[in-house]
Amino acid sequence: MKRSVISVVVALVAGVLLTVSPAASADGVIHKVSVGSADVNPPPGTDANFSLSAIQGADGTITGQWQDTFLGRSLPAVGFHVEINCLVVVGNDAWLSGLITNPNFLAGLPAITRVRDNGTSATDPADQVSLTFINIGVTCNDQPDLALRDLINGQVTVK
Questions:
Q1: pTM higher than 0.90 for the full model?
Q2: DSSP-derived 3-state class of residue 15
Q3: Contact 29, 23 (CB under 8 A)
Q4: Sign of CA pseudo-dihedral 102, 104, 106, 107
Q5: Inside any domain, residue 5
Q6: Which residue has the higher pLDDT, 23 or 89?
Q7: In this structure, is residue 91 part of a structural domain?
Q8: N-to-C CA span, the chain
Q9: What total number of domains does the chain contain?
Q10: pLDDT surpasses 70 at 46
Q11: Residue 134 predicted with pLDDT over 80
Q12: Which value, to the nearest 10 degrees, does the dihedral of the CA atoms of residues 108, 48, 146, 156 take?
């Protein structure tokens, strides 16, 4: 009897979670973009990395963040943290922009980047990312031709 009550409770909780989950709701998720990688050209002896995650819902909401750290480990960490508020996906390319939240002296300035998903197999070309550009007067809606650089490791996913 206990087992059947537990099964019913688990099924009810799962059902509730599915109905409030953005991915499973009627609104759905239009696009998901993620990157996890060492920076595109890290200085020797650093812990440079580039990572982001963004979701665009069918209702138009954009949520996400990215971190671009280009020093660290044996040197003081230097980089940017950005709250993403704009995402445009065209094919396997994505443009993302938002506002810097850290470091404090740059907080509130706009930042933009571009990423390209070139596949997942060893025979595919390397995935690519642009540098983080700060306060250049464009958002991701402008889809600027930001130069892309090959990742030496890591993965870009554009869906």
A1: no
A2: helix
A3: yes
A4: positive
A5: no
A6: 89
A7: yes
A8: 44
A9: 1
A10: no
A11: yes
A12: -110
